[in-house]
Every structure is written in C-alpha cells, then in structure tokens.
Specification:
Length: about 160
C-alpha cells in the first residue's frame, strides 16, 4: 500500500519546510488538499481553531495544522505500520490520536512525496472500511449530475428485431 518515489526520482526541497517540489506534486497545504479532496466523498473542515480536517462519511482521515505547530500532518495507519513508522525519525505517535493508531509527521521531509500520497490514500481507505454499509454505498454511487451527464453522452439502446 505504501509507494516509493516515481522511478527513483529525487525530491527537491525548497527553503520552506512546509513545501516539497516533486514534479507537479507540491506538498504544501494546497498540494495535500488536492490529494485528499480527490478521494470519493472526501470533504474538508476547519475545526479546533486552526486545524484543517479531511473527512469521509463524517469521519476524519487526515489533519493539517494551519498555524505553525509541533506536527505537520497527522493521519491514520494500521497497527503494524504504526509501530514501524513511529520508529522512524520525524514521525511520532499523533497527540490525542495515538491510541487509534494515528501517526504525526513532524515535518514535510519525514517521508517522500510518493510515500505521503500512498499514506493519505491508506488512511482514507482505513476510515472507509469502518463506515456503515449505507455510507460506503453512497460513496460508490455517482451523483445525480454525473448520472445525467453520462446518460446524455450515451445513445439510447435499440432493441433488435428477429
């Protein structure tokens, strides 16, 4: 589930530790927003004063502090990966959420951009797995607008005569 950098590409760091340039993938708040909001049914919300939360089905899967803080990003992992990641430098158990196997990245250079993208998707998938069946089904169904566009673009099927 965790992906490494594309074709062994190198990550270029700018002077700001909250930004990583990885081709077209920028790991600042906007880059993280772009990734998180690309997942089906994902939404964002400001909560607890200055934290940007990403949710699916009303449950959060990533937290980004918008003001300077001790952590750069928090997200959910599996129990096995929680133990593995918390042994790595720059990754700590997430404050207040560690008992639910959340990790916190202290800076943007704690993991590669490709690995971070995979971690965000894994966090999203872990939260979706725990959602009620009806909520999961609503995530997989296209919206009414998408269904209407699809039906307009496809010609009506005609019955064959025998």
């Amino acid at each position: 589930m965790i992906r490494r950098g594309r074709n062994g590409s190198r990550i270029r760091f700018s002077g700001d530790t909250r930004r990583i340039d990885y081709g077209e993938l920028n790991m600042d708040v906007e880059g993280l927003r772009k990734i998180c909001l690309s997942f089906p049914g994902a939404s964002e919300q400001i909560q607890w004063g200055d934290d940007l939360l990403f949710k699916v089905g009303g449950k959060m899967f990533a937290v980004i502090p918008l003001e300077p803080a001790a952590v750069w990003l928090s997200l959910k992992t599996t129990p096995e990966l929680f133990a593995e990641f918390t042994e790595r430098p720059g990754i700590i158990p997430a404050p207040y959420l560690a008992r639910a196997k959340w990790i916190a990245l202290e800076s943007s250079d704690a993991v590669s951009a490709g690995e971070l993208s995979g971690l965000l998707r894994m966090s999203y998938d872990l939260v979706v797995q725990r959602l009620p069946r009806k909520v999961k089904e609503s995530l997989s169904q296209p919206t009414a607008k998408a269904r209407k566009q699809k039906s307009q673009s496809q010609p009506a099927h005609k019955k064959r005569r025998r």
